[in-house]
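During the no-cost extension, the postdoctoral fellow (Dr. R.K.) reprocessed legacy sequence entries with the updated structure-token encoder. One reprocessed record is reproduced below for audit purposes.
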Amino acid sequence: MISESDILDCFQHLVKDVSDDVILVGSGDDAAVVKAQEKDLVHSLDISKVGTHFPEDSPAEDIAYRSVAVALSDLAAMGAYPSFISIGLTANITEISWYKNFTKGIEKILNEYQIKLIGGDVTFGEINICVNVFGYPYDKIITRSGAKINDSVFLTGPLGKGRKGLMDWKTNKKSSYVSTFFNPIAQFINSEKIVKYATSCIDISDGLVKDLGSICKLSGAGADINVDMIKITHDIDDVCYGDDYVLCFTCNKKHDDLAEEQGFIKIGFITDKVGKVEFKKN
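Re-encoded structure tokens follow.
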């Protein structure tokens, strides 16, 4: 029977040398100590649960990577870049190899985004990963509540790749979409591009219909969306599903040319019909 100490030992190489000018005390004490910066600290927390956010037979490495990536995506939606994370892991796996593979996924994403793991905890139970992410604004913070009437609505990419990847995984079909589901890309590059002109933003985690609805609700507005302009992967249900993690943002129409030059897709505009998102075809 493996112990909590055995599991924690799997993570030690990831937290051994994280102390620097910002992280004064890393893992090993009862709490980490982070030096206050001149910039605002942006924080988000995301929980991924087996059977809900990933299939039960998912590889441990992919579970780890995906759980961190979807949490980081929230920072990108706010116009912030990542700096460090902490992880709470609940698992009922009794093979130490599973935890070693899990840490491989953590190490992979730490290296890709050049961020640090400053601590966490483990306990026994149904697989559940709680990820705290911390970062700093590129410029101004982008919220969900800043959309204005007649603003344009943009997407930074197509919808449905994550959904198609999960479908392919469940049917044992090999495709690039499977990697898209398990290894989603947090859109920090696009976040930095739009941060100076976007009036609101959200990452598409729960589907365009719901997530754009959140922008409209908090902005006291509505939206008219041209379905024909949305790039979908599988079928029209892609607009409802989620797991895309592309950004949906709004901006003043005077920035349309810039947004389109940057490769973003205009799909509609903000209206005065409070809380009402209408999808139309040409």
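The chain has two domains: 4-137, 152-280. The chain has ten helices and twelve strands. The remaining legacy entries will be reprocessed before the final report is submitted.
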